[in-house]
Each structure stands twice: as C-alpha cells, then as structure tokens.
Amino acid sequence: MITRPALTRILASARERRSAVGAFNVILLEHAEAIASGAEQAGVPVVLQISENCVRYHGGLAPIALASLEIARQASVEVLVHLDHIEDTALVREGLELGVDSVMYDGSRLPYEENVRTTREIADLCHAAGVAVEAELGEVGGKDGVHAPGARTDPAEAVAFVAATGVDALAVAVGTSHAMVSRTASVDRALVAKLRDAVSVPLVLHGSSGLSDEELRGAVESGMTKVNISTHLNGLFTRSLKQFLDERPEVVDPRKYVRLGRAAVAEETARLLKLLAG
Q1: Cα(143)–Cα(96) distance, integer angstroms
Q2: At 166, phi and psi to the nearest 5?
Q3: Which residues form the signal peptide (predicted)?
C-alpha cells in the first residue's frame, strides 16, 4: 500500500473540514522549540518551516534541519519539517537525505515554461521519496521587493500549472505580502473561493503576518488550507528580548532573555493554531 506524504494527508483533512494548518518559520533552535510547544498546547498539527535564507544564516541545512526533526519526533502532536522557498535544487536533495517531510520549491523567478519543467522534476524526485511538494506559480508580493502586493493568481493558469507539475499544494497571490510588520493587509476572498473551486490541491497563503485575526479567518473560510506566518512571530520574539534588556541591561546570559522570546512565540503559536483550526 502506498502511504500518502504526511503534509498531503494533514492538508487534505484540513481542506475537507474548511480549516487550515499553521506553518511557522524556524530561525533559531528556540523557534522550533516554541512552535512545537505551541502546537502541543493547541493539540493540533503544525509545520516547522526552514527557508533558504535560514540555511544561509546557519551556514548549512543539516544543523537546523536535524535539530528541528528531533524536536518534531519528540512532540506529542504531529509536527512536520518543511523546506520553504527553496530555489537551490541541491538543497532539495539534501533535505530528502536528511528526512524532511515536505518541500516548497520556488521556481517563480523562472520563465513560466522553465518553472513548470523544473517544478515537475522536483515533484517527481520528492514523490519518489514519499515527500510532498508545494510550489508557487507567480511571486507572492513583497519577497525581496520584486512584486507589488496587488499581484493576483489567475485560476485558469493555476489549474494548468498544477496539472503540468503534479504538485501537492499551491501558493497563490491573493493580496498578502511577505515581511509585513503591521497587520493591515486584506485577502481577496472572492478570488480565494474561485481558486479553491478550480484547483484540485490545497491552497497555501504566504505572507500571512500582515493579516488581522478577522482576515485570517476569512481567508480560511474562503478556502486557504495552509497558512504561513513568520514576521509576526519574529516581532513578538524580538520585542520580548528588547523589553527585558531595556529593563536589565546588566544581564549577559542569553538564556535569561531568549527564553522569554521562546515563551512569547509558543503562546502566540497556540493561539494562532486554534484560530486557524476554527
């Protein structure tokens, strides 16, 4: 019997229930610990995301990926480790060797036909290893300033892209923008509903830090199934550390203040996961 990849399974279940799975980016080891702890508090699955930027920061994939995989293994709820916005195909291969659960291959900078061809190759490679693949048809707003937040995914093109590539989930542009520090964005709910009805695989919302709780719920109710959040949690982490150090500048042991950031991320992760689950 062929077992479906873990991400495909949990997204299919969420899509059927009209709920969403939260996916949060790992920057430091404390992020992975906090996100897993928050998922345990909420009692629902979660996705730990490791981006190509994170890999560059740590000087390699293995240290942060292996640590995240071990945290996931020890969790009392299902925690998946996902490679996010990967453009380097060598990192995809390394991730498969290390045992990641899923990969978001980002060929959105490529010409359409090349994006389709490369994404198809990555999907075949990952599926042979029992790993799910997410892709992005066109760049979501805000990533490296290369696209305006007004970008929108065309449903017909999305249907053709999924059919041609065989991906398991699709990131779409519906009004959000990466790296927003204020929660003032809005989602084109009518477009989300059209995409959900047209596209056969779960839809992924990137740049969700810019959405209020009401907008997050609206996006999920309209048809988003995986919701990526990073900047919002990083802001909480950083503010917790800054407040402590402003009040106690004499402290030099990082454990005394980094733990506060970890606790803040865990608490907000639990809250967001419950919000997304509905």
Answers
A1: 25
A2: 75, 25
A3: none
Phi and psi dihedrals of 23, rounded to 5? Answer: -130, 120
Residue 6 near residue 102, CB atoms below 8 Å: yes
- Active-site hit among 84, 101, 168, 188: 84
Of 38, 108, 33, the closest CA to residue 72 belongs to 33
Q: Which residues of 234-254 are buried (b: 16+ CB within 10 A; e: fewer)?
A: bebbeebbeebeeeeeeeeee
Check whether 256 has a pLDDT greater than 60. Answer: yes
101 is catalytic: no
pLDDT per residue as tens digits for the range 65-93: 999 999 999 999 999 999 999 999 999 99
Closest CA to 92 of 59, 132, 136: 132
- Reported as half-sphere exposure (CB side, CA atoms, 13 A), residue 141 has a value of 19
CB 103, CB 55: distance < 8 Å: no
What are 101's two structure tokens?
């659960």
Of 149, 159, 155, nearest in space to 187 by CA: 149
Distance of alpha carbon 269 from alpha carbon 224, whole angstroms:
18
